[in-house]
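Work Package 4 report. The design task specified in the project plan requires that, given a folded chain encoded as C-alpha cells, an amino acid be chosen for each position. We show below one input record used in the internal validation round.
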C-alpha cells in the first residue's frame, strides 16, 4: 500500500510541475509602456524585465529621454503596429486619455505596439 501512495504523490507533483510550466507561455502581457513627447512622437522606453525568454512581463518602464509614460496595448496576432508618420503622431497625441492609448484606433486599426521579442515577417 505504501508504494502506491508514493506513486500517486509523484504523479501529482509531476502534473503540477507541467501545469506551472505551461502558464508562463500562456500569460503574455496585454499592455506595455511607451514614451511620448508633446507632439506624439515615440521616444525610447527602458523596461526592466525578467531574465527569461518565456516570461514576457515588464516590471517597470522608465522614460530616460523624457516624455510621458503611456500605456499601450500589445498587438494581437495578425495585427501590425501602425508605421511611424506625422499622421500617427497626431492621432496618438489626440487619443491619449489619462496616460493610456488602450482601445484607441487609427484608420480602423488599433493603436498598438508589437510584442517584445516578436519577429516581423
Amino acid at each position: 500500500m505504501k508504494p502506491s501512495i508514493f506513486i500517486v504523490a509523484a504523479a501529482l507533483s509531476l502534473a503540477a510541475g507541467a501545469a506551472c510550466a505551461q502558464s508562463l507561455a500562456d500569460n503574455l502581457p496585454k499592455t506595455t509602456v511607451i514614451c511620448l513627447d508633446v507632439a506624439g512622437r515615440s521616444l525610447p522606453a527602458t523596461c526592466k524585465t525578467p531574465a527569461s525568454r518565456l516570461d514576457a512581463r515588464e516590471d517597470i518602464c522608465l522614460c530616460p529621454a523624457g516624455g510621458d509614460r503611456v500605456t499601450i496595448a500589445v498587438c494581437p496576432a495578425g495585427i501590425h503596429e501602425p508605421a511611424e508618420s506625422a499622421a500617427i503622431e497626431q492621432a496618438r497625441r489626440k487619443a491619449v486619455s489619462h496616460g493610456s492609448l488602450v482601445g484607441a484606433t487609427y484608420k480602423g486599426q488599433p493603436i498598438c505596439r508589437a510584442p517584445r521579442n516578436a519577429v516581423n515577417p
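The two ends are 57 Å apart (CA to CA). Validation will be extended to a larger panel in the next phase.
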